[in-house]
Amino acid sequence: MFEKILIANRGEIACRVIKTARRMGIKTVAVYSEADANARHVRLADEAVLIGPAAVKESYLVIDRIIAAAKQTGAQAIHPGYGFLSENEDFCDACEREGIVFIGPPVSAIRAMGSKSEAKKLMEAARVPLTPGYHGDNQEPTYLHEQADQIGYPVLIKAAAGGGGKGMRLVEKSDDFIAALASCKREAASSFGDEHVLVEKYITRPRHIEIQVFGDTHGNCVYLFERDCSVQRRHQKVLEEAPAPGMTPERRAAMGKAAVEAAKAVGYVGAGTVEFIANQDGSFYFMEMNTRLQVEHPVTEMITGLDLVEWQLRVASGEPLPLAQEQLQIRGHALEARIYAEDPAKGFLPSTGKLVHLAPPAEGLHVRVDTGVEEGDEISPFYDPMIAKLIVWDENRDQALARMLQALADYRVVGVANNIEFLSRLTNCPAFANADLDTGLIEREKAYLFPEGEVPPAEVYLVVALGELLREAAWAEGEAERGNDPGSPWHARDGWRLNATASRELLFRFGETQKAVTVAYRGRDRYTLTVDCRSTEARGKLDDRGGLRVEFDGRRLGATVIVAGEKRHVFLDGRTWQLANVDPLHHAGEGGGAEGGLLAPMPGKVIALLAEAGSKVEKGAPLLILEAMKMEHTITAPATGTLKAFRFAVGDQVGDGAELVEFEPAKG
Question: Which residue numbers delimit the Lipoyl-binding domain (predicted)?
């Protein structure tokens, strides 16, 4: 077994590998960019080596620097994690040349499966079922358009070197093909350095089911059952589970056999995933093979009781697989939700900033949290905005769903926008709860998942007001203890008045709506709160992490109120509400950029201008494309009007909130 390994990755997966290595007594070396100097994976590793600036092309993708770091520290092997160089054949070759073990498959397998089009040819020879499509080398737009027309719409354009949902476009009709192809090729070139694409028939209401395979250097290969990853957004997985709902033993065996045959066809060694598109009728087609550990591997670990990173390390060191196929068993059901710093209300745009408050649910037998960040860390614009993976397990799917809902309700994130509430609605969505699954579930359940016009109930205003009062009282008590006369009644915040009851108003704003809570003091830590003409007797206790135990008219409940500037983040009954504390003496403007301007929703690079300056455009017309975090974001006209000028040219970097376009809405 290795004595020391280097982890050529960052964030959650680097921390995940460190955890297993430490348990096995293996020392770890982290690599980091300048932006990650204080990152959690750097703090956890035994050693760390700086490999370059923030940009991945100058750090995490520079093979020579990573190899040099391994040699400098005496690491015997390199674990690539997922993403970055994990499926890069040149990196695997470089490790081999330098006598460093690559913890993954041989370069021949990476090469064979690295091109989706070449992989399809191999699978066809191995008699693995394939989706109808064009996987050839002719990349002329006109020719690809003709192939798509012959296949029949809808079709899916996919980057041959792609993965992670990047470089994919669904095309519904022939007229849209050329524009979608150009966008797909741009994103593929940016993300993978290769604009080669393939075109496939898009299966209506498909399920995405993948099989975990594992091979060793002794000729053994097994499958560790399946994961259902059908719930996706923009071809990126959102919720994953194992086993797949409705999977029969016969179908599982058939898919497992096909996956093992696919792995054997390329002499596979280590952890890999064979992904299939499955019809509702049970038929399935090979989609691609990921020659690495998957993001969603924890659900497989939870139902098998195995550590797949440990298996990777053992196989890479030359040991045989720990178990044979007949020894592998499924127990219970597991779900994984990806907690991201993104704003569902703004089309899931990534959010950046400091994690002012981060409190995950308690871990144990049923709940696991894999993360690369801690409270106080930054979500930067340079990398994937994942906060954590939340994994739950229970004896059956219904119980696992209940576990997930509770764990999401217990999660507390302040400082960046996040998708936790969206994940709660998704988990609770009748279609998902009843396992009516396909890759279009999020789109078809939009009305349920994206409710409009929701406003906080009165109870939220009661909670935030009580939190404010208790915080004031705690502050006054602290000031008294620091003073010369801590027992003085003048320090008390109990509203005492001679022959009168003290009262005041607290003002809070939600969106554009401002609401008052009237407070009448009833003694120490007791109040009558009135909102919407209804009075409530209130009392409670506040801890130093914003946790509130409140009592309203004798009914007790728990809540959390986190203060961030003027914002009050209220966590109550599994929901999160963001209110602003209004100071009636403060009259500063709201800001938000120049009137008539369109602002950048996040830092990025302008890669295309889609309209002419001076032209009249309709509401929703695309104006420009901003690339951020390797994804394209189209900025559209907010109303019918005139595009007067662009503030930036193609290739320019822009900051969050930068004015992109001078736009004049039509009058009348």
Answer: 587-664
Reported for 505-512, long-range contacts at CB under 8 A and 24+ positions apart, including other chains, are: 506/465, 506/468, 506/469, 506/581, 507/581, 507/582, 507/584, 508/461, 508/464, 508/465, 508/568, 508/579, 508/580, 508/581, 508/582, 509/579, 509/580, 509/582, 510/455, 510/456, 510/577, 510/578, 510/579, 510/580
Catalytic residue flag (residue 526):
no
Strands, E assignment, 448-554: 496-497, 500-501, 503-510, 513-521, 526-531, 534-542, 547-552
Whole-model pTM: value is 0.80
In degrees and rounded to multiples of 5, residue 498 shows phi and psi of -75, 120
C-alpha to C-alpha distance for 168 and 566, rounded to whole angstroms: 41
292 in Cβ contact with 355 (< 8 Å): no
- Burial class, 60, CB count within 10 angstroms (exposed 0-12 / middle 13-18 / buried 19+): buried
Strand partners, 379: 353
Question: Tokens in use for 80?
Answer: 């690539």
Question: pLDDT, tens digit, for every residue of 434-470?
Answer: 999 999 999 999 999 999 888 999 999 999 999 999 9
3-state secondary structure of 100: coil
CA distance 150 to 134: 10
Q: How many CB atoms lie within 10 A of CB 664?
A: 12
Cβ proximity of 311 and 321 under 8 Å = yes
In whole angstroms, how far apart are CA 349 and each of 125, 238, 579, 634? 42, 15, 21, 11
- Cα torsion 651, 652, 655, 661 to 10°: value is -100
Q: Is the pLDDT of residue 302 over 50?
A: yes
- Which of 65, 233, 292, 539 is an active site residue? 292
pLDDT for 483 equals 66
Q: Is the dihedral of CA 288, 290, 296, 302 positive or negative?
A: positive
Rounded to whole angstroms, the Cα distance separating 291 from 273 reads 7
Q: Using alpha carbons, select from 51, 53, 57 the residue that is nearest to residue 35.
A: 53
Task: Tell me how far the alpha carbon of residue 382 is from its chain's centroid.
Answer: 14
Distance between CA atoms of residues 624 and 621, nearest Å: 10
pLDDT of residue 489: 58
Nearest 10 degrees: Cα torsion 396, 234, 110, 64: -120
Say whether pLDDT at 124 is over 90.
no
Euclidean distance between CA atoms 167 and 307, whole angstroms = 31
Query: What is the SS3 assignment for 220?
Result: coil
Read off the pLDDT of residues 203-237 as tens digits, 9 standing for 90 and up.
Answer: 888 999 999 999 999 999 999 999 999 999 888 89
Q: Where are the beta strands (DSSP E) in 84-154?
A: 101-102, 133-134
Query: Which has more pLDDT, 320 or 475?
Result: 320
Question: How far is C-alpha 352 from the geometric centre of its chain's CA atoms?
Answer: 13
- Confidence class for position 45, pLDDT limits 50, 70, 90: very high
Q: What is the largest CA-CA distance in the chain?
A: 93
Q: Which two tokens stand for residue 36?
A: 């990650």
Instruction: Retrieve residue 42's tokens.
Output: 């750097």
